[in-house]
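Question: Hello, beginner here. Any chance you could explain the protein record under this note? Any guidance would be welcome.
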Amino acid sequence: MRRPLARVLAGALTLAAAAAAIPLAQARQAAPDGGVIGGKPVKIADSPWVVALSSRDRFGGTRAGQFCGGVIIGPTKVLTAAHCLGRQVLGGPVESVRDLRVIIGRTELRAAEGREIAVRGARVNPAYDPATNAGDLAVLELNESVPAHYVVPLAGPGDPGYAAGTEAAVYGWGDTSGFGDYAYALRAAGVTVLADEVCRAAYPGDADGRYLAESMVCAGAGAGEGGKDACQGDSGGPLVAGGRLIGLVSWGRGCGRADSPGVYTKIAPLAGFTTG
């Protein structure tokens, strides 16, 4: 089934109850190792632009309330997936989540390092289509500024990072099994950007979804290969190639399956909205 990759919980569920909630989010069938499937632990100091979205009221305190990822693109701006801010994830409008925070500078969610910054506003891409996940992007405005070295550059039209065969990396604190076993420490996996025709063949428009090249990019271990992918809870996290942000974790089918590469929101066509 096609599914967005947010961590979907109804209310402030405990992690023990999370496994029961996963089928409602069209859970991925995961490989055994890693929140980011096939990845490895990384330090936030090496990728300071990666952030976690948090609400302890909604998701409990065990993992600092983490439910999605994001990426810093300006002193007070964070990008995430639009579906992370939807009612299915938050249980209501985003403005009703009074403790919504962006966690920066923290590798391990149970640690006290870094900062938790309040969100003063959110803008969802007006062209976002929940039915297809096209344009799956939102901007969060922070209450405080972050240092310049936390900001990642954005890919523009024609960026070489979108070329098939490009090596990229995806980051997140997501599910380690597909059944609600979430990582506590940040992970990253090396993936390969795939040709649009490979992505269209994987998602031709059946019940699993349609790949739309104008607004999406897909990546995996390689054409016809599995084992490296994002998973539940990684939504909104960055896909980076050549030191630039080329995509955000959006949707897919399963975790790390050879026939089902991960699908990401393509950043270049949305540059005007991100900087507006």
Summary: Residues 225 and 258 are 4 Å apart (CA to CA). The chain has five helices and 16 strands.
